[in-house]
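Teaching soon. Invent one.


***
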Amino acid sequence: MILSGIVPDPMISLLQKAADSIRKVDYVKIIAHYDGDGTSSAIILAKALLREGKKFHIGYIKELNPEALKARIDEDLDNQIIVVDAGSDQSSLISENEKIIILDHHFYTGGNIKGININARDHGIDGTKGACGATMAFVFALTLNEKNVDLMPFFISGAIADKQDIRGFVGLNKALVEKFEKTFKKIRTMNIAGEDLLEAISYSVDPFFGTLSGNREFTKSFLSSLNIDYGKKPRELTEDEKHKLEEKLVIELLKQKISSDALKYLETDMYVFDRLGLTSKEIAGIIDGNSKISQNGMVVQYFLGDESVKQICMDNWRKFKSKLIEFARQASKEMFALSNVQYFYAPDSEMAGSIAGLLMLYYSKQNIPIIGFNSGDSHITKVSARGTAKMVSSGLNLSTVMKVACDSVGGHGGGHDIAAGGSIPKGKEREFLTRVNTLIEEEIGNFGCQ
């Protein structure tokens, strides 16, 4: 089998059982988390099902709580369902459904279901750094049909969207990349993407350049001062131009007093997928950007082969980045803090996590985690939390913090040690923050005073 020696045998057995279940049906309901990783996973599953001649429908969930997942599942109770990039920690209300396959990588508290729960963490795989939702979708697709190796671009895009490429791939991600990367061209280059340098830098959100991102005229002047044509594609730079540009961009980042993780993210291994005419960075950006402004269906349509919507997807990507830059600058001016956590109120619920991630890496205090709130017109406040690798190495686990703190005020939470989220009743924000502040101190001490 193509995954032998890469995936643990018990996990292969579960994947084969899940694949056999899919082969017996004509229709499959896919339920995915709405973000870049979840949508990349949905694209993988959709393409794999099309190859098998199966009909399917894709639905998305934005709130990772049992009720939200159950509502989606209840729409197709009699059909085979695949839940990807979610499901394990929400399985309590769906434990009796035998027609459910879960492909997940998040922390969860355990529990048995009659369906098939395939979570990377149950097999000794780090679901924060070594496997994402798209990783799990990819290994399932390979189990279903080995021809699905051509879906690797979307596995990589999901890993990038989940920041699992920072400092290079590890764990199952690394094993899969090393197994199949010879199929594609790999280059070591700056971690920017766009049709030309002007777009790549002035729209850059990851890395985020404080004085350049969102400022086209300043970026033009910046490139002109280096005698670099801003109309060049990033991949067309000469080695001398690349060296000059990287040196100046590092200086821009250092002005922001960024984390070491962010600085190392300026250069990365990037894959060029000639068949798609895009790099791995561009695919990840297009998928994540469209997903975060609720255009998941449009970007799936494009990557399933509908070229007529390409320009719409590209414009959506630019729209997302423009909004993120604007919102991040706004949030950075309206930050609040307790002793062990900093927080802000986001203007858009789908983007709270993206804003928190950008601020944590590039703009805010580096010694305490950050939380973004968004309540909108709902009776629920959505919560997104982000930390750094240094905090995690000191004992921080935001998945536990979010789960316990959200539960304590009547909400739901969970995720990863470095990035997590949840939802709480509106009006409970202060009580929630007090609990978070205490939990963080219990995990890593009074980190904010170090």
